[in-house]
From TrEMBL:
Name this polypeptide is given: Peptidase T
Residue intervals of the Peptidase M20 dimerisation domain: 208-310
Positions annotated to bind Zn(2+) 1: H79, D142, D199
Top class in the EC scheme: hydrolase
Residues the record lists as binding Zn(2+) 2: D142, E177, H381
SUPFAM superfamilies from the UniProt entry: Bacterial exopeptidase dimerisation domain, Zn-dependent exopeptidases
GO molecular-function terms, A-Z: tripeptide aminopeptidase activity
Active site: D81, E176 (proton acceptor)
Main location: cytoplasm
Cofactor: Zn(2+)
Superkingdom, taxonomy of origin: Bacteria
Record's subcellular location: Cytoplasm
Length: 410
């Protein structure tokens, strides 16, 4: 199973499937559709039924029940796309067998080193088989590790009919990284009572709380005049944008917060004297605090409109997803099944809030309660991303055990 899992994951990781928030298509990039069709072929080859892919790149498939019990249909999901934060073109995964616990040279020519000083959790993987980048791209374990684990688990269940389970549905979705993963997901067609995204990080992660999330874009319009004659005439939009950012609490940013603390995160800024734009994401676990954060942004915008003109400061703000805890708490047993599955395999569950979001954040509000489980990846979205194959194998085992327990408890 180990070599099969490695081969499967690397074949996915080498495909460029970064999403693109500036695209209006679904999927937002053609590479995601290429991977979707590859998965359709693989799912058919391994013996899955009801294998489909729609025009938007949503892949669905079924593993029929092998029990006479009336077991609720459960689902497992992962997303096709990789993050937009760092390039995912020409990914060259590297395998480190029996990792020795020391720094890993990712790219000798470019002097790119994955160090235990910068990433102290790395040394905890001593003895594991690791898959890393070559230092020039992200790896894509978020979420291709999840895809590989789900497919491998289905292969295992098909090969072991003595493990009784109800009907299982799997789905692979586009554009999660740009917040659109469930936008065209057909919950009714999926037909599951509940599901799990396999989209977490280190061993044992089990998450059913997520941020409430919004995105804000503020555009600033100024007046550009030759600097030699600019006195009293120039209105510098970039300076207005900088003044705006300084009105936000400096300590309420990702680099200063953890646990249940929310934040304002400046994800990009562009500009010159004439036109500038700030893009933020706004996050908080508490709904009231979330609404207050959005109101604070809007209040500063109104103040700047009064100072610089109503047409010169423009706010676009929209909610992206909400804390899925509200929808999962009433069916808490689905979290308990995952917890019991991990404990039965000797894995200590790490139940904590997701400082981010998964497709489950939106799906839970669409009628499909969907907590999240680990994949074995670390340092997502950048050149220092890596995954432990040993932990990936544990994720496969957890998927299998969830299916077995769900049948046992029915």
């Amino acid at each position: 199973m180990k070599q099969e899992l490695i081969k499967r994951f690397i074949s996915y990781a080498e495909m460029d499937t970064q999403s693109n928030e500036d695209s209006e298509t679904c999927p937002s990039t053609p590479g995601q559709m290429v991977l979707a069709h590859k998965l359709v072929e693989e799912l058919q080859e391994i013996g899955m039924t009801e294998v489909t892919v729609d025009e938007h790149g949503y892949v669905m498939a079924s593993l029929p029940a092998n029990t006479d019990k009336d077991v609720p249909v459960i689902g497992f999901l992962a997303h096709l796309d990789t993050a937009t934060d760092f390039t995912g073109t020409d990914v060259k995964p590297q395998i480190v067998e029996n990792y020795d616990g020391n720094d890993i040279v990712l790219n000798e020519a470019l002097n790119i080193v994955l160090t235990t000083k910068s990433f102290p959790e790395l040394s905890g993987y001593k003895g594991h088989t690791l898959i890393t980048t070559d230092g020039t791209t992200l790896l894509g374990a978020d979420n291709k590790a999840g895809i590989a684990e789900i497919v491998t688990a289905m292969v295992y269940l098909l090969a072991h009919p003595e493990i009784k389970h109800g009907k299982i549905r799997v789905a692979f979705t586009p554009d999660e990284e740009i917040g659109r993963g469930p936008h065209k997901f057909d919950v009714a067609a999926f037909g599951a009572s509940y599901a799990y995204t396999v989209d977490g990080g280190p061993l044992g992660e089990l998450e059913y709380e997520s941020f409430n999330a919004a995105a804000a874009k503020i555009s600033f319009h100024g007046v550009n005049v030759h600097p030699g004659t600019a006195k009293g005439k120039m209105i510098h939009s970039s300076k207005i944008a900088m003044a705006f950012h300084l009105r936000l609490p400096a300590g309420e940013a990702p680099e200063f917060t953890d646990g249940y603390e929310g934040f304002y995160h400046l994800i990009s800024m562009q500009g010159n004297a004439e036109h500038s734009k700030l893009q933020y994401i706004i996050r908080d676990f508490d709904r009231e605090n979330f609404e207050n954060r959005k109101a604070h942004i809007a209040a500063i915008v109104d103040e700047f409109k009064s100072t610089y003109g109503a047409d010169n400061v423009v706010l676009e703000m929209n909610d992206q997803y909400y804390n899925m805890r509200e929808k999962i708490e009433p069916v808490r047993h689905i979290v308990d099944i995952a917890r019991e599955a991990m404990e039965g395999l000797g894995i200590a569950p790490v139940i904590r809030p997701i400082r981010g979001g998964t497709d489950g954040s939106q799906l839970s509000y669409m009628g499909l309660p969907t907590p999240n489980i680990f994949t074995g990846g670390e340092n997502f979205h950048g050149k220092f991303e890596y995954a432990s194959v040993d932990v990936m194998l544990k994720a496969v085992q957890v998927i299998v055990e969830i299916a077995r327990l769900a049948e046992q408890k029915a």
